[in-house]
């Protein structure tokens, strides 16, 4: 099943445990579980606990780190619930699907297991509404497709208000993994960054668009004013309509904006004419880290795949050869040692 079909079927597809686990609760995420843990931090703010339940969310490629955290929690006195996409039977209490949708399934489990079934159900409602507006058959007025067109050919800068730092993390991962596009999250104090980042080289603001993710606050208001004079465009990507007013920027709202980002990234990949799904190199790297493949697989191309880096100097030279007065370039640069690059 391709990723677009998976995204369309995702709302309501969670089929894992729904019973709450004894508190207090702690949460650690590694590997594929890192993003799910970050999004679920709104309902599980604790990291490590000495009693109650310690959740360790991981994947087979990060099994050793997950095992170490689980052992520490057990020694401290907590019961451990190991949530993973795979691995040995002893390392998995709750199995979740691997890939892009790991975030949804693991996060929903964490919401239910921490006693927040209401927020998990709110998330399903928001995701279903987004699905109805973003699915491939929706042409005119599809917000995900429209935003993907806006991002095409540009570098997104990602910002969010305090307390929603998981959103830039989520969108950077989605735009890279699905959309094959580098996005830059502006973390820490955004005022420090935006007031100085473009002053020495003004052209660095060209072909960039800032996305203000989720709710805005006074700081982001000032940031927007600054950026509007330094980059191409600033856009607000709010939480979807229908968010529970009692948790305006809570778990359900943040998971739904993750889901919207997945649709945007999928349409951006299509716009670039690229495969909508995981890069083959990612799967091979994860298999090597999980101990399921020979490390040589990382450098051995599969089929027609070319895993080499682009030869930028030669590409520039080829482009310049068509110009009558094109810039000169040094042939020696074309023959340099790759280790010197």
UniProtKB/TrEMBL annotation:
Keyword vocabulary terms for this entry: Isomerase
Ranges of biased composition (kind: Basic and acidic residues): 306-317
Region described as Disordered: 295-341
Compositionally biased spans, kind Acidic residues: 318-341
GO molecular function: carbohydrate derivative binding; glucose-6-phosphate isomerase activity; mannose-6-phosphate isomerase activity
Superkingdom to which the source organism belongs: Bacteria
Domain Phosphoglucose isomerase N-terminal: 3-115
Database matches in CDD domains: SIS_PGI_PMI_2
BP term (GO), one: carbohydrate derivative metabolic process
SUPFAM superfamilies documented for this protein: SIS domain (SSF53697)
Gene3D superfamilies attached to this UniProt entry: 3.40.50.10920, Glucose-6-phosphate isomerase like protein, domain 1
UniProt-listed InterPro entries: Glu6P/Mann6P_isomerase_C (IPR019490), PG_isomerase_N (IPR041001), SIS_dom_sf (IPR046348)
Domain (Bifunctional glucose-6-phosphate/mannose-6-phosphate isomerase C-terminal): residue spans on this chain: 142-283
Record family assignment: Belongs to the PGI/PMI family.
Protein name, per record: Phosphosugar isomerase
Source taxonomy: Bacteria, Thermotogati, Deinococcota, Deinococci, Deinococcales
